[in-house]
Specification:
Helices cover about 30% and strands about 20% of the residues. The chain has 20 helices and 27 strands. Strands 2, 3, 4, 5, 6, 11, 15 and 17 form an 8-stranded antiparallel β-sheet that branches. Strands 7-8-9-10-18-14-13-12 form an 8-stranded antiparallel β-sheet.
Length: about 800
């Protein structure tokens, strides 16, 4: 096959365009100001790696640990990481195609389809390897790409077919590195045998199976290959290096002309390493192994251990899939997405999303993690979803990872209270954000209790975790303290939280308080079993006090919405009737707290703090569901035709964390907040509401099949409808309010905020598990028994 491909390539070379002239090092450094790229991913992948004694290390069932992640958006390869999961090395790789007088660039002048390369006989994906097809909008050509990583090395495989449909075309590979997680400081060189880039100790090498007809490197917007092509449709200049200069660069490789009706096939492997030689070696090793075999190993379709082996190990996944409305396709894809988004150096480091929100307008001059970082809140949701799937290894690794992100006396820069968990960190524990969010301190306790009660931690192991990690966390939930780290010197007095679950406001939050009560109640159970009855009594006393005052602190009886009786999103003090003003956020003015509704009160039911039929819960539902309210304050939006609507919810009224409703522009362009910004619908709230409906159905102790079917029809299918073409679930979808341009969003379509969002996939899987069990997966029996009323 390789010989035939070479013969075909020689025939095509006879019709190749005139080659570019070598004109020396590229001028124009440092090039255009760099940005990241579209965060609305339709694909994300990495190799499956098996743990060795709960850690990632070479030599286990999957051999060398591959530390390469890739993403796909707009039909092209986008942010690609190597090393730690947030360490981007590539912004994007596209093809530009010259057709007559036109230069068509993938993602700009093409439409696309995406599919999984490996599915079971029911169409459910078994591996995050992809086939992406882009098609010229005038129908003149199409490009098929198959993407996966080398599970036995540090390399990404891109197998390409260019099909000339109605005209002859000349394709060019455009690779834009962002080495060492920035778009500046890159140097490069280009030869017909390979394209190379580096910054410091981060190197990449793109090696083709057949040499390019010409190659060049240049600075974006000045001397890059695309700028050259757009002059006259020809590659006139070939710059072999960037010389002594560095900056925002693009590497270009020319391919032969493809005559109408013909197909050109090329294989590209991008290797990564600490020096040029090792990066090139990684790429050539994959070529040498044979890319069919590399894919088989990645997918697990042969004798080697790969992705399909992991999906087969999830003994609850078929049960969950049986509760879906799509035959299990999204359930299988969700499982893959959660496991893809784990770091491969720090086992159990579960990130929020393999994306940089609104990346195409986010400056890439400085390193950025975006959502490729650890938030203990999102982390908890994902760990619980793994448990729901029947995977105990990953949540155990996650639980054992958590001490890295807990504040201790020896935490760098800390001079204040200990025991709480950091707001946001890199996967190696490097501190990024330091706001105190009490739910993020409660949830590690809740996860530990669940692992213990499910038999995944022994009594001795939970006692050790209690002493080292969980007791300091529970003590903070009782006592609080004065924080002393970086900018933060606030005093926190629980259950008052410095930030609620949206990381924006201080005060008393129903969702945060629900987690704190649950965390303390189960902490008491752990403390008693660990020989600390005094602490157990103290934790229960605090939980009792917090639970007894939930309504007094957060339920208004004099509100301006509906009948005036409902849970507030947040009360700034202990008087929910004082109409105190919330702070300004995301370009939106602070409004009286009684005008703002959110779904946080439903967490009281989820964890067992309140029964589903508690008067305060039932009283709040009409305000939460009110679709007659003005758009600024409205939370619920339904999508689809009458009689078949999909319910969706915004985070809260007056939310500004989203695109601009007036112009359609991205959030926070130029680092500035804009009054037109509007937070959109978040699909996981559809799952949260589905969980509430299940709790209602379970009030009499049983859930009938008719009740399951109703929840499946509205809430499960609703979440499935928010998935994109790659079966990825977004953070936000367009709610139909305001200007959908420049992206042209349709109502219910994912925006450029962040896709895939791990929390959304986790919520979907947990809803399926809850339906299968006939009980809410996150409900804590000791909480419900003590506080549920």
């Amino acid at each position: 096959m390789r010989l035939l491909a070479a013969v075909s390539a020689l025939a095509l070379l006879a019709a190749a365009p005139a080659l570019a002239q070598d004109v020396g090092p590229a001028p124009g450094a440092p090039g255009d100001a760099p940005t990241w790229v579209n965060a609305a991913k339709v694909g994300a992948g990495a190799s499956y790696e098996a743990y060795v004694d709960g850690q990632y290390r070479d030599g286990g069932p999957t051999g060398e640990v591959s530390k390469v992640w890739f993403s796909i958006a707009d039909g092209v390869l986008t942010e690609t990481m190597w090393g730690l999961i947030h360490e981007a090395q590539i912004k994007q790789m596209r093809l530009a195609v010259v057709v007559g007088d036109d230069v068509v660039v993938e993602g700009e002048g093409t439409d696309f389809t995406v599919d999984y390369l490996t599915r079971d006989d029911q169409g459910r994906p078994l591996s995050p390897s992809y086939r992406v097809t882009t098609r010229d909008r005038l129908g003149r050509f199409e490009i098929e790409k198959r993407l996966f990583t080398d599970p036995d090395g540090q390399a990404l495989v891109v197998r390409v077919e260019v099909r000339a449909l109605t005209a002859s075309v000349v394709p060019f590979v455009l690779l834009e590195p962002h080495m060492a997680n920035t778009g500046v400081g890159d140097a490069g060189r280009a030869t017909v045998d390979g394209l190379f880039a580096h910054e410091g100790a981060s190197h990449l090498a793109l090696i083709p199976d057949v040499p390019f007809t010409a190659a060049s490197v240049g600075f974006v917007g000045a001397s890059d290959g695309l700028t050259d092509l757009q002059d006259n449709g020809r590659m006139n200049r070939a710059h072999p290096t960037t010389g002594e200069a560095t900056g925002n660069i693009m590497l270009t490789g020319a391919l032969p002309r493809v005559r109408r009706g013909q197909t050109l096939s090329r294989d590209f492997v991008i290797g990564f390493g600490a020096d040029a030689g090792s990066a090139e070696g990684e790429a050539r090793d994959a070529h040498q192994a044979g890319l069919d075999q590399v894919q088989a190993t990645y997918d697990g379709t042969g004798a080697a251990v790969g992705w399909s082996d992991w999906t087969a190990s999830l003994d609850q996944l078929p049960r969950l899939a049986a509760q879906s409305a799509d035959g299990g396709k999204l359930a299988y894809a969700s499982a893959l997405m959660l496991k893809v988004q784990e770091d491969r150096t720090h086992a159990g480091a579960l990130i929020a999303s393999l994306s940089n929100p609104w990346g195409d307008t986010v400056d890439a001059t400085n390193p950025s993690t975006g959502y490729k970082a650890v938030w203990p809140r999102d982390f908890y949701q994902v760990a619980m979803a793994f448990l729901a799937l029947g995977d105990a290894e990953t949540p155990l690794a996650a639980f054992r990872y958590l001490p890295q992100v807990q504040v201790r006396a020896d935490t760098p820069g800390n001079s204040g209270a200990t025991g709480w968990f950091l707001q946001k960190t890199w996967v190696d524990g490097t501190i990024e954000w330091v706001g105190v969010q009490l739910d993020q301190t409660a949830m590690p306790i809740m996860l530990g209790w669940r692992l213990w009660k499910d038999g995944h931690l022994t009594d001795a192991q939970i006692a050790e975790a209690y002493r080292d990690m969980l007791k300091p966390a529970a003590d903070f939930l009782v006592d609080g303290g004065t924080v002393g780290i970086l900018w933060n010197d606030r005093t926190v007095t629980p259950p008052w939280t410095q930030q609620e679950r949206w990381e924006e406001q201080e005060g008393f939050s129903p969702s945060t308080t629900a987690a704190v009560i649950a965390g303390l109640t189960v902490a008491a159970d752990i403390a008693a079993a660990s020989g600390d009855p005094e602490s157990a009594a103290r934790y229960l006393a605090a939980a009792d006090d917090y639970a007894a005052r939930v309504e007094a602190r957060m339920f208004t009886t004099e509100g301006s919405l509906g009948d005036g009786d409902y849970f507030l999103r947040l009360s700034r003090n202990e008087d929910p009737n004082d109409k105190g003003t919330l702070g300004e956020n995301n370009g939106q003015p602070g409004l009286p707290e009684d005008r703002i509704i959110d779904g946080g009160f439903l967490e009281l039911v989820r964890y067992g703090v309140r029964r589903a039929d508690a008067p305060s819960i039932v009283a709040t539902l009409p305000e939460y569901d009110d679709q007659t309210r003005e758009d600024r304050l409205r939370v619920r939006y339904d999508f689809g035709p009458a009689g078949d609507r999909t319910p969706g919810y915004r985070r809260y009224g007056n939310d500004g964390y989203g695109e601009q409703a007036d112009t359609g522009g991205n959030y926070g362009v130029g680092g500035q907040m804009h009054p037109g910004q509007r937070g959109r619908v978040w699909p996981f709230f559809t799952g949260e509401r589905g969980h509430y409906e299940l709790a209602v159905a379970a009030l009499d102790g049983t859930v009938t099949e008719a009740e399951r079917a109703a929840i499946r029809r509205t809430w499960v299918r609703g979440m499935e409808r928010f998935a994109n073409a790659g079966l990825l679930l977004p953070e936000q979808v367009f709610d139909g309010v305001g200007n959908p341009t420049p992206h042209g969003y349709a109502p219910g379509q994912g925006t450029n905020s962040a896709t895939p969002l791990a929390w959304t996939h986790a919520e979907y899987l947990k809803l399926l598990r809850s339906l299968a069990d006939g009980a809410v997966w996150d409900r804590y029996a000791p909480v419900a028994e003590r506080h549920g009323r």
